[in-house]
């Protein structure tokens, strides 16, 4: 029997109708690059050949009654990858705005747990004869060990599809047979005995972090909560999507000029954009907002199935008008947060949920948090994630990938997520939001480009001053 890992089980059990736990993306394709006619059936045939290389994309979930233990992965019988693909048309006139509206509507729907936990929408009717692919993948199906997600299975380096995907598939895990009630109950009892031990470990870490915090002088690191923004109320079920792109070389030039990390530049650009958004609404707080930044906790050589993630909460610099000062402050705060993780001094909310509560309790807790968002401390205002892809163009079933928009999940108190992918010379910013909280996602998309220009000009001014 193949049971979900602790972390994967959390991603499944924390899911509610308002906060589904799938992630995904939107690939904008140019069919004119294909050596043979590109169409829906050709894509479906291509997809089936690739998904066959990765068995976990045919697995089903078997949940334990009452959420008393982690669910099981079981083999699927009778389902085909083609059943997971849907053909749709974008409304006329097929611009980016119509595509974004459609993507938000399709993305907000939770995945059907009676089927494999992924699906793809083949979207036609875009201007210029373009096609878009929207994919949704439940976070519990992500596998950092194999390195092959759903989208990665589709990518090629040339218009001529190879027999294997760009990312090598090292996926040896297998699902099991359905578990009987007696087997599930017996294992639930054994696993339940481990929970108090894990709870004691996390309590000890929290105590050590509190003691260390008494002697810290850095006011940024010493903050326990973030100020509330208009996108930090109870998240609803609707989703809005927008996107923006800036040149990757320009961001790297800033990184090199200031001697910081590329992720520091990404945080500074997004922090500047959110500052512009809140300023124009008259809602900019004096205290800086805080960004939650996902990090991998996987050790080198770790080949265990499933997610192994944590988050660090980083000062976002929305209280600083000077873009260069914002970058340096973010750089220092991010280094301090990473140091705490490496020294095991940080508090890991996901790890606590994963290792100390049964899935049923996690789901109850998430529903309780959703009803108390205005009265509980806010650790961070939004998630900002940065993912590296390839510096060269990719192809899917022969069609060139002109652009990629990452789309991600929202937490109960965070109506905004900004995920960034570096691809083919660009930093592609994907904005996922609750439209009832962040009403102008396309303003934020435009503000990202403005913040980039402001930072470039400020860096050029610094170089001229000290040159």
Write a concise synopsis of the structure shown.
The relative contact order is 0.18. The protein is globular, with a radius of gyration of 22 Å.
The H/E string reads EHEHEEEHEEEHHEHHEEHHHEEEEEH
Q: What is the overall silhouette?
A: globular
Chain-averaged pLDDT: 87
Please compute the radius of gyration using only Cα atoms: 22 Å
What can you see in these coordinates?
- The strands form three sheets. This protein has a seven-stranded mixed sheet with strand order 5-6-7-2-14-13-8, with helices on both faces. Strands 9-16-15-12-10-11 form a six-stranded mixed sheet, with helices on both faces. The protein has a three-stranded antiparallel sheet with strand order 1-4-3, with no helix packed on it.
- The radius of gyration is 22 Å and the shape is globular.
- With 467 residues, it is α+β, with helices and mostly antiparallel strands.
- The protein has helices at residues 6-13, 40-51, 96-107, 181-192, 195-213, 248-258, 262-280, 323-342, 349-356, 359-371, 441-466; strands at 2-3, 22-30, 60-62, 72-74, 85-89, 118-124, 131-138, 155-156, 240-247, 290-296, 309-315, 382-388, 395-396, 399-407, 416-423, 426-433.
- Mean pLDDT is 87; it is low at 217-223.
- Helix 7 (262-280) crosses helix 11.
């Amino acid at each position: 029997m193949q049971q979900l890992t602790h972390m994967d089980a959390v991603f499944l059990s924390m899911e509610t109708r308002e906060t589904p736990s799938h992630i995904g993306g939107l690939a904008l394709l140019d069919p004119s690059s294909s050596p043979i006619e590109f169409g829906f059936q050709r894509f479906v045939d291509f997809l089936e050949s690739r998904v066959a290389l990765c068995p976990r994309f045919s697995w089903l979930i078997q949940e334990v009654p009452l959420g008393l233990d982690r669910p099981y992965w079981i083999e699927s019988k009778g389902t085909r990858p083609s059943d997971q693909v849907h053909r749709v048309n974008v409304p006329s006139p097929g611009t980016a705005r119509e595509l974004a509206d459609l993507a938000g509507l399709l993305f907000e729907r939770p995945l059907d747990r009676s089927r494999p936990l992924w699906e793809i929408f083949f979207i036609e009717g875009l201007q210029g004869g373009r096609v878009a692919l929207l994919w949704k993948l439940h976070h519990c199906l992500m596998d950092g060990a194999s390195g092959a997600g759903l989208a990665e299975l589709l990518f090629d380096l040339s218009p001529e599809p190879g027999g294997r995907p760009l990312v090598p598939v090292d996926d040896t895990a297998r699902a099991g047979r359905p578990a009987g009630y007696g087997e599930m109950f017996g294992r639930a009892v054994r696993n339940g005995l481990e929970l108090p031990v894990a709870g004691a470990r996390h309590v000890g870490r929290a105590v050590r972090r509190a003691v260390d915090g008494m002697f810290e002088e850095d006011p940024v690191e010493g903050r326990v909560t973030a100020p509330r923004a208009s996108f930090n109320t109870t998240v609803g079920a609707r989703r809005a999507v927008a996107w923006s792109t800036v040149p990757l070389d320009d961001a790297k030039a800033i990184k090199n000029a200031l001697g910081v990390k590329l992720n520091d530049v990404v945080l500074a650009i997004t922090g500047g954009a959110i500052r512009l958004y809140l300023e124009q609404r008259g809602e900019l707080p004096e205290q800086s907002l805080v960004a939650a930044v996902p990090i991998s906790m996987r050790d080198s050589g770790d080949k265990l199935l499933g997610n192994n993630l944590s988050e660090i909460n980083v000062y976002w610099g929305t209280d600083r008008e000077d873009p260069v000062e914002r970058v340096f402050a973010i750089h220092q705060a991010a280094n301090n947060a990473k140091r705490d993780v490496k020294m095991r001094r940080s508090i890991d909310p996901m790890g606590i949920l994963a290792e100390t509560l049964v899935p049923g309790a996690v789901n109850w807790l998430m529903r309780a948090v959703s009803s108390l968002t205005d009265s509980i401390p806010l650790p961070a205002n939004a998630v900002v994630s940065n993912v590296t892809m390839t510096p060269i163009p990719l192809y899917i079933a022969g069609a060139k990938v002109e652009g990629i928009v990452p789309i991600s999940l929202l937490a109960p108190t965070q109506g905004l997520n900004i995920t960034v992918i570096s691809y083919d010379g660009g930093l592609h910013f994907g904005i996922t939001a609750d439209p009832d909280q962040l009403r102008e996602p396309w303003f934020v998309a435009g503000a990202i480009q403005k913040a980039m220009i402001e930072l470039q000009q400020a860096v050029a001014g610094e170089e001229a001053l000290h040159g």
